[in-house]
Amino acid sequence: MAVPLFASSLEPYRPRLDEALARVVKSGSFILGPEVAAFEQEFAVYLGVRHCVGVANGTDALAIALRSLGVQPGDEVVMPSLTFFATAEAAVDVGAVPVFCDVDLETACVTAETVRAALTPKTKAIVPVHLFGNVAPVPELRELGLPVLEDVAQAAGATLGDRKAGALGDVATFSFFPSKNLPCLGDGGAITTDSDEVAEHARRLRFHGSRDKVTFEEVGYNSRLDELQAAALRVLLPELDGWTDARRATAAEYERRGLGEHVTPLRAVEGAGHAYHLYAVRHPRADELAARLGEHGVAARGYYRAPVHRQPAMERFGAGADLPVTEELAATNLALPMGTQLSAEAVGEVVDACASGST
Ligand SMILES: Cc1ncc(COP(=O)(O)O)c(C=O)c1O
What we know:
Elements lengths: L13 H14 L6 H14 L3 E5 L2 H11 L7 E5 L5 H8 L3 E5 L10 H5 L6 E4 L11 H5 L6 E3 L7 E2 L2 E2 L6 E5 L13 E5 L2 H11 L20 H10 L3 H17 L7 E2 L6 E2 L5 E4 L3 H10 L19 H4 L5 H9 E4 L7 H14 L2
Helix pairs in contact: 1-8, 2-8, 3-4, 3-7, 10-13
The chain binds pyridoxal-5'-phosphate.
């Protein structure tokens, strides 16, 4: 049996998606209409925050959120290097300076200690990334006294204590890219916050820096979540908690079948309800293991082998960064199959393949 890395499918939801998309086409309203307004309201209620602002993708969400927080050109923004490139790209886009900090070996998330080591008098914001569906310890980061922007692109559905990821910091950003835990049917993103001021600024920035399309108060973006994507998200949002439960059941099945005897699974941050966007483990010869798993029909992939601070486009900001744990995780992480539709039998095949391939 071939076991894919992303074992999720929207096929069961197709009739309801078709119906929702047809409703939008029939309405003739495609930009900033009732579907976006309703989704923003529903997602804010789901997360337990006051505001949600739908935007075109998770990268724009980060740039707009940084500016809405008041980050100015030349300001430093502390973030992990072990993340998708977009986290740092957005900071550079707004003229800020990404300062890369290290992460914890067991969780792959930043900690108060790793962030503190990167702070300077020029730091204006901290951007923890909830990597692979884990949740960085945001309450501890907030104690450092700077605004915290959660990058929740990979962790919709995750929790920390009794709060949802995306409701922990001063502002948070989501991506609804099709492979994400809450997907749409193309590109989409959102910004969430309890701050009236940040929300109002983000709304203006997503619409060319204007409130009324007459006066343009600042140079912004054309970055709206569109009506078709919002309608699809309204069909899929009610499924998110069930999907997250299915992902957690798969993680528990990996554990039950003894995966930890062959590889070292990353662990959830203390108090976190992990959303398992990816199921990541560590292995000293991760790429060799991936090749062996491939021979058994099991897909596996190492993420961020060249972390952001070593990307050519970030040379200006990353040169000289000393991030030993990031380097170790970049070399040794391996994502194993995960998704909302992975059978216990398929999990068994992955564990068996790891048993024969990890020695
Ligand atoms: C951690 C992280 N931040 C930001 C993004 C950017 O999201 P988008 O692809 O919607 O622009 C991604 C997407 O992969 C991501 O994984």
